[in-house]
């Protein structure tokens, strides 16, 4: 079995993670004020519900305006949101009714918007309150790996995945980096080698990564060629009190396909050592299904709620048609 390299600051980061206090109003790292301030460039807002002077519900959102239409979508690098709810004590049936009621009140407090879209965090077990308010609900699946001992996780993998990781470990050494600047410099260089451009705001991503790493809430794993010491791939992960999220990766064109699975294996071991569920953060295509399923995790649903006015839907359709024409004739 391949063992991971030691973290350069592992004990300090584990201590910081252990000291995190769970707050039902901030159920994930993506709900925390510092994250949202960095991810939205300070443009985050909240609706809240109180009970007896105590806040029992909070829903963060960000508003953009274009062509006179207002929309709220997921902030940069913020992979999950949805309501944070303090449902108190009592029976599960009573708490469910309370969560449902608080969520509907949060929805009603949102400002008038032409479009709204959010992906719910893993603590949202259904999206019925949104459906009751006229929102559409979709489901995206992710793979999760429970924090079992390394040997148990390793045995649950597909043989092909284990072999790919073994071969990559013969050519690469994995280390943890505390330098987000270097991660995004490497990412930009890899994109340039492939004649591609970033489809995400690297400036915002870099600020989020700096904040996460400085707080002991993020890991950057780097794979260097054993022979030359040159970095060839890296991944960026963050974690909260329960979950360890795989967010970004970069790989040199000549690095080979096994280097990212090797990095993921290091991250999975780190998550397990911290007692966190490892979340692959969404299945978006057939390639990600093939890669993630090889690690032996279980699928878990994430609900996506959307609502759009007719003018916004018409504008979106026009823009899609324009994009299609441009792609055809360029």
UniProtKB/TrEMBL annotation:
Domain of life: Bacteria
Gene3D superfamilies assigned: 3.40.630.30
Protein name: BioF2-like acetyltransferase domain-containing protein
InterPro entries the record matches: Acyl_CoA_acyltransferase, BioF2-like_GNAT_dom
Domain BioF2-like acetyltransferase: 158-280
Organism: Aliirhizobium cellulosilyticum
């Amino acid at each position: 079995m391949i063992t991971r390299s030691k973290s350069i600051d592992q004990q300090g980061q584990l201590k910081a993670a252990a000291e995190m206090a769970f707050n039902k109003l901030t159920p994930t790292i993506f709900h925390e004020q510092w994250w949202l301030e960095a991810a939205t460039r300070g443009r985050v807002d909240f609706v809240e519900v109180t009970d007896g002077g105590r806040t029992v519900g909070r829903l963060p959102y960000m508003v953009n305006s274009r062509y006179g239409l207002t929309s709220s979508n997921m902030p940069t690098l913020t992979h999950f949101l949805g309501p944070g709810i303090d449902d108190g004590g009592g029976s599960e049936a009573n708490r469910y009714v309370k969560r449902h009621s608080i969520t509907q009140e949060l929805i009603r407090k949102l400002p008038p918007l032409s479009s709204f879209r959010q992906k719910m965090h893993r603590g949202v077990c259904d999206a019925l309150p949104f459906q009751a308010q006229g929102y559409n609900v979709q489901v995206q699946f992710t793979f999760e790996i429970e924090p079992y001992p390394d040997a148990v996780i390793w045995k649950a993998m597909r043989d092909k995945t284990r072999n790919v990781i073994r071969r990559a470990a013969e050519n690469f050494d994995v280390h943890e980096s505390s330098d987000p600047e270097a991660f995004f410099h490497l990412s930009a260089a890899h994109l340039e080698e492939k004649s591609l451009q970033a489809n995400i705001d690297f400036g915002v991503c870099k600020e989020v990564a700096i904040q996460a790493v400085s707080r002991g809430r993020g890991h950057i794993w780097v794979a260097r060629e054993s022979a030359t010491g040159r970095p060839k791939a890296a991944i960026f992960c963050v974690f909260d009190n329960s979950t360890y999220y795989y967010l970004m990766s970069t790989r040199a064109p000549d690095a080979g396909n096994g280097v990212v699975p090797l990095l993921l294996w290091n991250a999975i071991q780190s998550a397990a050592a911290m007692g966190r569920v490892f979340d692959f953060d969404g299945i978006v295509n057939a390639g990600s299904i093939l890669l993630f399923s090889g690690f032996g995790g279980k699928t878990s649903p994430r609900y996506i709620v959307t609502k759009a006015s007719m003018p916004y839907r018409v504008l979106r359709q026009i823009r899609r048609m324009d994009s299609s024409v441009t792609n055809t004739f360029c």
